[in-house]
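Chain A, query sequence.
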Amino acid sequence: MRASLIKKADRMVIKLGTGVLTDARNHPDLNQMETLVSQLVALRKLGKEIVIVSSGAVGAGMGSMGWEQRPGTLADLQACAAVGQTRL
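Chain A, predicted structure.
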């Protein structure tokens, strides 16, 4: 079914979250990103319009800041997101 949906679609919205964009240490997973880019290029070559939505900024920021557990306060979450967004 997924293949038939992809074939029919002109535009695709793809959400890439922390689990996809970061490794076990909460650092950007460059190998995974390279694989994703290759797949997105293939879809573009098929004429698909791709919209990417990312929610991995907090996770990437946690790795940069050396935090192993997700922060509990809004200020800490915002700090992680600010640091992580630049890494993504």
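Helices lie at 2-8, 18-21, 30-45, 57-65, 74-87. Strands lie at 11-16, 49-54.
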